[in-house]
Amino acid sequence: MEGVSPPTRAQLAAARDRTIPDVLAPGLAVMFCGINPSLYSAATGHHFARPGNRFWPALHLSGFTPRLLRPDEQDLLPQFGLGVTNLVARATARADELSAEELAAGGERLVAVVDEYRPHTVAIVGVTAYRVAFGVPHAVIGPQDERIGEAKLWVLPNPSGLNAHFQLNDVAAEFRALREQG
User: Fold this and answer.
1) How far, in whole angstroms, is CA 154 from its chain's centroid?
2) Taking every annotated instance into account, which residue ranges of this chain make up the domain Uracil-DNA glycosylase-like (predicted)?
């Protein structure tokens, strides 16, 4: 983030189990749902804030935003018809620290959030988390037959830099497919 010092090791350690506020508004075109905040995100208070995370570049490259937004500009998302929440609110160093029970409870919470905000489409970023949270073991990336309430449902690749299966252009292509077909 421009002009902002990265969190120290102590600040990252103190961020464990912290939560960060959702960025939501009623009637969004797309509600993006991450797995859970990283320690970096929790320390800064911004979604997808860890350097190397490809969420913000993918949003821009796919045409969702007219320019590359920084994580500290997350509050601009609703003006583009976009929002962000997480399946699990608590921050961890790695998503694999979450239990299946936490992910399932997060899926139930997401259903309530969707019912309240009524987005057109929900895009869950992380196929493995989606499979566990919603009990769909063979789900693949892309549009799903299921819906959450009235919202269409898409599963996108996890934009974390730790996801070596997808490079930035691959992630952006999946985001673009959602924008064009969602």
Assistant:
1) 12
2) 21-179
State the Cα–Cα distance between residues 117 and 100, nearest whole angstrom. 25
Give pLDDT tens digits for 83-95: 999 999 999 999 8
Per the CB < 8 A criterion, the answer to whether 167 and 66 are in contact is no
CATH 3.40.470.10 fits 24-181, yes or no: yes
* Type of residue found at 73: E
Q: Per-residue pLDDT tens for 5-63?
A: 899 999 999 999 999 999 999 999 999 999 999 999 999 999 999 998 999 999 999 99
Mean pLDDT throughout 60-89? 98
Domain boundaries, the chain: 24-181
Name the packing angle between helices 127-134 and 100-117 (round to 10°): 90
Q: How many CA atoms lie within 13 A of 65 on its CB side?
A: 21
Give one DSSP letter per residue of 60-95, joined into a string. HHTTSSSSPPPGGGGGGGGGGTEEEEESS-S-BSSG
Residues sharing a CB contact under 8 Å with residue 159, sequence separation 6 or more, in sequence order? 48, 53, 54, 55, 58, 125, 171
